[in-house]
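Pilot study result, target chain (192 residues):
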Amino acid sequence: ILNLSKVHCVSPGRIIHFLCFSIIIILAFISYFFIPALWTGQVTVFSTIGGFVTFYGVIFAIIETWRARSASEMASHAADAANKKTTAMFNIKSISECQSCIRDTLIDVDKDGWASTATLSRIIELYTAEFYEEYNDPNSDQRINIASLQSHASTASGPLKKTALSRLKRTLTQMLADLTAAASTKISETSK
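Predicted structure:
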């Protein structure tokens, strides 16, 4: 009975080397018949064999260099992909923290009628980090939300009036929606 579990496949790299070696041997045999002067005398035969071995060595080195470069490029691409996924996961963590701060602030606003300046500052920090490109555009919704929250953070020292309270809630819920959309986008990017 033939045990196929012990049969090993030959790797493509070994096949390439075997083919090159076979071609060199075939060339040596052809040279024996068509250029017999290469095979007369000990010194000439030794030099001829040395030349063919050197030629095979050069081909072997070229093949291995090409394979190492390919492996290096594959490793580089894999490292880039892993880095992008890690960065995206870190960004998702920051988004999650910002969403949690916003939800806690909304609870505080509903319960006490005001929000902590420290919490609002943390929301601004995390939100700005997520939407840094939009922050540079003075007309973007994110920049307007940040400016509104900065205004609340700098002026809120106690319970807010009804209009300021509703503006703060509207700003926070808009920011929460922006963050949810950003998180969904990043999650879909990391799953690719």
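One observation from the pilot: Residues 98 and 122 are 8 Å apart (CA to CA). A full batch analysis is planned for the follow-on phase.
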